[in-house]
Design brief:
The complex is a heterodimer of chains A (389) and B (598). With 389 residues, chain A is mainly alpha-helical. In chain A, 68% of the residues lie in helices and 4% in strands. Chain A has one domain (6-388). Chain A has helices at 6-38, 43-63, 69-72, 74-87, 113-131, 139-159, 163-180, 184-204, 206-216, 227-239, 264-297, 301-325, 343-362, 378-388; strands at residues 94-97, 100-106, 109-111. Chain B is an alpha+beta fold and 598 residues long. Chain B has 20 helices and 20 strands. In chain B, strand 15 (454-458) and strand 16 (464-467) form a beta hairpin. The radius of gyration of chain B is 41 Å and the shape is rod-shaped. The chains are: A mainly alpha (389), B alpha+beta (598).
């Protein structure tokens, strides 16, 4: 791995600490369940460690690959991820669980293509907006084409269904389009016109509607649909400043469903307290800010969009997960990057970090803040113009 | 210089014309807003965390503590009831009971649908119950399931992962002998509370101490602590009943019931020296394991709750009183040749006509006319006093619930015919136990003993809690009088007596038959069809080991005590003497005459 730049060292450090905390918490949350199901408390832990190792390998590999080469592979990636998404519906290859088909059978584990789709969407948009940067103010180029691609992805993902991925993909796309220079009134119109669609998606699915009402009034039915949220609150409440102690959670004893995946942050809150929860949150902030720092050193749109896009992807997923487990957002089923048990998310996010590290190492010579378009530095202007030609 | 300037201008131009520059600069400006929004998001989460974890801590922690504990009720093991030889008559077995915590059941409808057929209720009803009591922390769904059902339910619980269902091991009353001694033992309700018999009478000793504990559990109700939780068991009881004798008595009584198509039957066996009840049988009977399947008439312990007119069996009391008071001599003769006697305008008849009878022969042949004459000689006050002293009109004090006093009117309420009627055992209501106690007094030398069925109360650890010793109620007649009455009663089963069918080869039987018409309150007269046949006596006559009474209510075919009840008495006694290993007293049949010096 290339540790030459300060930013990349910071990014790697924060990711490794987050992954470490995640591994410990995955063991804490799955030990009993694993013992009851497999007779050994390590079953889930070993699977998680395996994923961490594969993810680290992917991170190292991508940090050594020139990220610019991704540009030539954009359409391959786009087509590949769409095919993988569609393969989920093929019997024997696709795996269903809890009434959803989101996974591909991949010995010895499974893979969730919707996680990959998020990264591919970021890479595609970075490339697309770079090439069309001067046309982003058109409705056609600024909104219609990128949103069209997004809707194709969302449509397939919604069929699985994976509403969490649909929402995070939407938020991510809109954020990147704002960044890419699309007219704000176009974006406003897009959001306004998508509202009926969102309403339709929610209202046609009984469980989504129920989740929404449960979210607004969890205490009304604490043993029915508000159960998970109430149990999550109780976990946080139990934790107070320094938590009940690592491994001593009571909520993980089947009170809090999905404690090792979507609600692992509640477990962190319970066992490690406010101190632990804020540490995890702080690590994500640190990671995000370092990502922004890397972006400030880039001097052309593709790198800039890609860096910020990947940073935001991780940050937005973290915020949505936090918001869901603290009851600020309705339940969606989105893992916490680097922490939650669940291979695909971990793998994809570590791969994204690998790309970030590579961008950082390629652009470290460029002084932060006064990049290419800094009007005060004519020599820089020349080098930029040369690169552009 | 010019070249440099030219290049500079060119670059400047290129720069100015670059189509990317302006939009990229706009992007950089916009990025600031986006980054700020995301950082603001993180800040909001932080505040929310402080709110949940610090400000709401107390409320949420209380809520947590509430859901981590489950109140567990510990039902103690009820004491064992043993017969006098430590055979188990009533014991407790473990049975699983299913409970629900409705507040924890999420999918009530599905659960009801799957569970209902297993526990034999309608799914609609179960669902209604769960919905109605949805805020309750604990309700029973099915108590004391058999092992098969319990296994099926727990398999369902594992398979479907239903939270809010659980089992508690309860102790269930079990009567290994079934029908045997059911009227003495009684039974318990589903909560192991004594409802009848000894179970009711000694409930406070048997039941033990119930308690409840709070147990830490996970969300599926599995206990997290491994400590032993046990409630204090109840005390055990040792009965005076001998299960083998009880069996003999019940078997013979059942046979007689069948033979005579009788409505009911009672037989009680007692140790006359101590008042210990050795056996007490009632027919019809019931299985205390399933008390709900029987009618109240089957569960009634007629031996202590039902009154009947004793008839001729009362003549033993009359004879004892007359002898004790010295109003008759043994050689005194009574003229009964008329076949009837008129007292107070009422004519009292004999069944068989005799000429002149001595005092013992009046009893032996059960002459009503002779008995009335003896009664008249004794007088109503003295006779009444002896009836009272023998324990009639008062509870015997046996340790079984539901005993009645009987009916004995005071002398001032007597009519002109009352003395005569009482001399032949009418106008008085007695329980079989009262009459047996009176005969036991004659058997043991004149002392009225208090009958009892529980001899010892023993703690679960085996230490005696209470030991019952025989209680003398009072001396009724002198030993000499008792001996003479015994001799007279011996002749009843000999040649010329009314109960030759109670004669036993090898041992002397003393007893008296009774055949009483049932007083019909509807017509105000004695029924011509409905009788109570009885035989009360003791054996061996000179050194009585057992006193026994057999009462058959409303036999069909024959009605006489000598025909209906005496053979039952004989059968029971024969088996009993063999079981108790009582030695034969005599080799050949010798006629013992009443009044011969002993």
């Amino acid at each position: 791995m290339n540790f030459t730049s300060r930013d990349s060292r910071n990014i790697v450090a924060s990711v490794l600490i987050l992954t470490g905390i995640g591994t410990v918490m995955v063991y804490s949350s799955t030990a009993l369940m694993s013992m009851r199901q497999y007779g050994s408390s390590f079953h889930y832990l070993w699977k998680h460690i395996f994923t961490v190792l594969v993810g680290t390998a992917a991170m190292i590999a991508l940090s050594r690959t020139d990220y610019r080469r991704l540009r030539s592979a954009v359409y391959i990636l786009l087509a590949g991820s769409l095919i993988l998404l569609a393969l989920v519906f093929v019997p024997d290859i696709g795996v269903s669980a809890n009434g959803a088909r989101r996974w591909l059978r991949l010995w010895p584990t499974t893979f969730q293509p919707s996680e990959l789709a998020k990264v591919v969407m970021v890479i595609f948009l970075a490339d697309y907006m770079d090439r069309n940067i001067h046309r982003m103010r058109d409705f056609k180029h600024g909104i219609l084409i990128p949103v069209g691609v997004m809707v194709v992805f969302q449509g397939i993902i919604l069929l699985q269904p994976d509403f969490g991925a649909v929402v995070s993909l939407g938020i991510l796309t809109v954020a990147l389009l704002i960044l890419g220079g699309a007219r704000l009134n176009h974006i406003g119109a897009l959001v306004l016109f998508s509202l009926p669609a969102v309403y339709l998606v929610i209202s046609t699915s009984a469980y989504r509607l129920k989740r929404l009402t449960c979210f607004t009034e969890p205490w009304k039915d604490p043993f029915g649909c508000g159960f998970q949220l109430v149990q999550s609150f109780i976990a946080f409440g139990n934790g107070r400043f320094f938590g009940v102690g690592l491994g001593d959670s009571r909520q993980k004893l089947y009170f809090l469903p999905e404690v090792h995946t979507d609600f692992i942050f509640s477990l962190i809150g319970e066992e490690l307290g406010l101190a632990g929860a804020l540490t995890v949150l702080g690590l994500f902030v640190w990671l995000f800010i370092k990502g922004v720092h890397v972006a400030r050193r880039t001097d052309e749109p593709f790198s800039y969009f890609l860096t910020l896009g990947l940073s935001m992807m991780i940050g937005v997923q973290a915020i949505i997960n936090f918001a869901v487990s603290t009851g600020l957002m309705p339940t969606k089923g989105l893992p916490l990057p680097f922490i939650s048990y669940g291979g695909s998310s971990l793998l994809v996010n570590m791969a994204a970090v690998g790309i970030l590290i590579n961008i950082s190492s390629k652009n470290e010579k460029i002084p932060a803040g006064r990049v290419s378009y800094g009007d005060n530095n004519p020599s820089h202007r020349v080098s930029y113009m040369k690169r552009r030609r | 210089m010019a070249e440099r300037r030219r290049r500079k201008t060119e670059t400047r131009k290129l720069w100015d014309e670059d189509p990317v520059r302006i939009p990229f600069q706009r992007s950089r400006k916009r990025s600031g807003v986006l980054v700020t929004v995301i950082l603001f998001g993180f800040a909001v989460i932080s505040l929310r965390l402080v709110n949940l974890m610090v400000i709401d801590h107390k409320r949420l922690a209380e809520r947590a503590a509430e859901q981590y504990t489950v109140k567990e009720i510990l039902i103690p093991q009820r004491g064992i009831i043993w017969d006098r030889r430590m055979r188990e008559m009533a014991t407790s077995v473990e049975a699983d009971s299913l409970y629900a915590v409705p507040s924890k059941i999420k999918d009530k409808r599905n659960l009801s649908r799957e569970l209902a057929p297993l526990i034999n209720v309608s799914s609609k009803k179960l669902n209604m119950t769960l919905l109605k009591k949805k805020d309750r922390g604990f309700i029973w769904l099915a108590r004391k399931l058999d092992m098969n059902t319990a296994l099926k339910v727990s398999a369902l619980r594992e398979r479907s992962g239903y939270a809010g269902l659980g089992f508690l091991t309860e102790s269930k009353r079990y009567y290994p002998k079934g029908f045997t001694a059911s009227h003495i033992l009684g039974f318990t309700d589903i909560d192991n509370k004594g409802i009848a018999g000894i179970e009711l009478m000694y409930d406070e000793y048997l039941r033990g101490e119930a308690s409840s504990v709070y147990v830490n559990t996970d969300a599926r109700g599995n206990s997290l602590s491994g400590d032993v939780r046990e409630a204090a068991s109840g005390n055990n009881l040792l009965l005076t009943i001998d299960e083998r004798l009880q069996y003999i008595v019940e078997k013979e009584l059942s046979a007689a019931m069948k033979k005579w198509k009788a409505k009911a039957g009672v037989a009680i066996m007692m140790n006359p020296a101590t008042g210990e009840i050795l056996a007490m049988a009632d027919r019809p009977a019931y299985d205390p394991n399933f008390p709900g399947r029987s009618r109240p008439s089957q569960r009634r312990n007629r031996a202590i709750t039902d009154l009947y007119e004793p008839g001729s069996t009362m003549k033993a009391v009359l004879a004892a009183a007359a002898l004790e008071e010295g109003v008759v001599g043994l050689d005194e003769e009574f003229d009964v040749s008329q076949g009837y006697i008129v007292v107070g305008g009422k004519r009292i008849r004999d069944v068989h006509k005799h000429e002149i009878l001595t005092f013992p022969e009046v009893i032996q042949k059960s002459s009503n006319v002779g008995a009335v004459q003896i009664g008249l000689k004794l007088g109503k006050e003295r006779y009444y006093n002896y009836i009272r002293k023998f324990g009639f009109g008062k509870k015997t004090g046996i340790d079984l619930p539901g005993e009645v006093r009987g009916i004995l009117r005071k002398t001032e309420d007597w009519s002109g015919t009352s003395l005569a009627a009482l001399s032949i055992g009418q106008e008085i209501g007695v329980t079989p136990l009262q009459l047996l106690a009176a005969y036991a007094a004659i058997a043991n030398g004149g002392v009225l003993m208090k009958p009892y069925v529980v001899s010892d109360i023993i703690s679960p650890a085996g230490k005696p809690v209470r030991s019952v010793s025989p209680t003398v109620r009072r001396r009724v007649i002198s030993e000499e009088t008792a001996a003479v009455v015994r001799d007279i009663l011996k002749t009843v089963v000999e040649e010329g007596g009314t109960a030759t069918r109670a004669y036993i080869k090898g041992n002397l039987v003393a007893g008296k038959t009774g055949t009483a018409q049932i007083f019909d309150p509807r017509t105000g007269r004695y029924s011509r069809k409905r009788y109570v046949s009885s035989f009360a006596g003791f054996v061996p006559a000179d050194n009585p080991r057992i006193a026994l009474i057999v009462v058959i209510y409303e036999p069909k075919g024959s009605v006489y005590g000598g025909v209906v009840a005496a053979p039952v008495f004989k059968n029971i006694v024969e088996h009993t003497l063999a079981y108790l290993d009582v030695p034969m007293e005599r080799e050949e049949n010798q006629i013992v005459l009443a009044g011969t010096p002993r």
